[in-house]
Amino acid sequence: MQEKMKLPLDDIPVGRTSREVRILARLFDGFANATRLSILLLLAREGEMRVGDLVEQVGAPQPRVSDHLRSLAQCGFVQARREGRHAYYSITDWRVLEVLRLAHNGLQEYREELIACDVLQDR
Predict the structure, then answer these.
(1) Mean per-residue pLDDT for 25-34?
(2) CA nearest 68: which of 102, 59, 46?
(3) Binning pLDDT at 50, 70 and 90, where does residue 23 land?
(4) For residue 96, what are the contacts with CB-CB under 8 A and spacing of at least 6?
(5) Which residues have a Cβ under 8 Å from the Cβ of 97 and sit 6 or more positions away?
(6) For range 74-82, the mean pLDDT
(7) In the prediction, which pLDDT does 64 show?
(8) Do the Cβ atoms of 101 and 94 come closer than 8 Å?
(9) What does R_g of the chain's alpha carbons equal in angstroms?
(10) Strand, helix or coil at 86?
(11) Which of 56-77 are b and which e, b meaning 16 or more Cβ less than 10 Å from the residue's Cβ?
(12) Contact, 48 vs 89, CB < 8 A?
């Protein structure tokens, strides 16, 4: 009999009330908003950006971008560096880049299915 391969996350108890599942869901929530995802993609490409440049490229109002940056920073996705009156943001951890890379690969493979999927609506 073949031994079952240990998969990532095998040790996480499942269920809606599982504390670990709820924390893991927060990880995915960081990527599950178009504004936050746009910010992360821009930071992945550019390395570090000023808030004003993010606002311009994301195309969202400055308060909204700042709120999302604050959330991303609080949750450990990005970090801020102040220089005079300007705040510069960058991705905190290479694993955020890896999640973006995996998502990009999945998009290439499942693009048509994702476009046709009307269960998961745009937020």
Answers:
(1) 87
(2) 59
(3) confident
(4) 40, 44, 77
(5) 44, 91
(6) 94
(7) 96
(8) no
(9) 17
(10) strand
(11) ebbebeeeebeebbebbeeeeb
(12) yes
